[in-house]
Amino acid sequence: MRVSQLVCVTSATVLLLAPVAVRAGDVLLQGDDPLAVASVDPIRPSIAAEDAATGGLDAGLPGDTSYYRLSVEPVGKRFYQTPDALMIYIDTTDVQGDLHIELGIYRSRYGSRNGEVCWDGTKILDVDAYGGEDLRVETLTHTLTPGAGIHELRVADLPGEPTYLLIDAIRLSADGDITLVDADGLPIALESPSLDPTMAERVGAELDALPDLASFGGKTRWQASETFPVRQFSAPAAFDGDAEDGDYWAGGTPAPHAIVAEYPEAITFDACRVQWLGDNRAVRYGLEAWNGERWDLVYHDPHNLREHPIYVFPPVTTDRIRFTMYELTGQNRILLRAFQLYLREGDAP
Predict the structure, then answer these.
(1) Fewest CB within a 10 Å sphere: which of 119, 239, 243, 278?
(2) Dihedral angle at the C-alpha atoms of 33, 278, 268, 326, nearest 10 degrees?
(3) Cα torsion for 146, 151, 153, 159, to the nearest 10°?
């Protein structure tokens, strides 16, 4: 989702950080953002991309070709893990007058004719995403006077056809501030703190030459919320210092999940690299360090879209870390190739 100057934000139901409000008079949710819209179904939104989906509300922006797939029918879900609907929570306390809702629909041969958009449970739009061979993006609009408070905007596929409701983008605009909140009414967190791709490539080359401080040694103690009994796919497989050896932490159940590692001696680090297995990654997670009395937050990523994100922060010294995953995408289970910590500045004590 992009707000004003393309600031990425995400919706979350549990926040590690203190809430930070994201307000703007023009909010654009794009189809390449798996957390911009909270799904009614626990399966994360199914995302796809096609050149035919270019244009519309997000024309010319990164992610222009991407869209969401929704399907309520079992036949549709057989091929893709799709939710029945997408849902956005909107605080309109600071909105003056009308709220304008624009819905970008990707009309395709696989598009469902049975969609709807509801505002606080009342239907405001019928959605027909079927386009036959005439693939295109169209925009549906609706204007309403919301009144102050938190409201629910729901886009849903309805029973009737074994096809998909294809959502290209959603734009909300009004005079005053539109505040997006989570299901608990808390303002959403800001964009991912990971390095941008150019900086990540440069820093990643530096990290390759440094020792991985997170690597488990013989005296490291650990406890995970879930681990596979086969060593190759157990939790420690992601902490062996080697992301290219073919093993990884393979959990079998949905989030949340966490691992706590206690090292025989304190380590000092100021960089973290997390390497997921393709699209099977966590999109919301955080790292904490034990200070002797409580857990201190090192970083929280509410909106990860990268396979190998890198995080940098002031040096942290601790003998115990906790890595917690709150939202998973892909197969909705842990598939973590490597979790690595490094000290870029100075020497470890």
Answers:
(1) 278
(2) 50
(3) -120
Residue 9 token pair: 């934000």
Pair (147, 84) in one structural domain:
yes
Indicate which CATH number applies to the domain containing 38: 2.60.120.260
Q: Measured between alpha carbons, how far is 135 from 273 in angstroms, rounded to an integer?
A: 40
Model confidence pLDDT, tens digit, residues 229-277: 878 888 888 898 887 888 888 877 777 788 999 999 999 999 999 999 8
Q: Would you say residue 348 lies in a domain?
A: no
Would you say residue 112 lies in a domain? Answer: yes
C-beta separation of 228 from 252 below 8 A: yes
Q: Find tokens 């849903």 and name the residue.
A: 156
- Tell me, yes or no, whether 318 and 252 share the same domain: yes
Q: Between 302 and 6, where is the model more confident?
A: 302
* Residue 50 belongs to domain spanning: 2-181
Q: Give the pLDDT mean for 65-79.
A: 82
190 domain residue, yes or no = no
Same domain, 67 and 9: yes
Report the distance separating Cα 315 and Cα 343, nearest Å: 8
Q: How confident is the model at residue 83 (pLDDT cuts 50, 70, 90)?
A: confident
Residues in the chain: 349
Environment class of 185 (CB within 10 Å of its CB; exposed 0-12, middle 13-18, buried 19+): exposed
Burial of 226 (0-12, 13-18, 19+ CB in 10 A): middle
Provide CB contacts within 8 A for 331, sequence distance 6+. 81, 280
Return d(Cα 98, Cα 104) in angstroms, integer: 20
Of 74, 8, 62, whose CA–CA distance to 36 is shortest? 8
Domain count, the chain: 2
155 and 215 both lie in a single domain? no
- Residue 123: is its pLDDT beyond 90? yes
Residues 161 and 287 in one domain: no
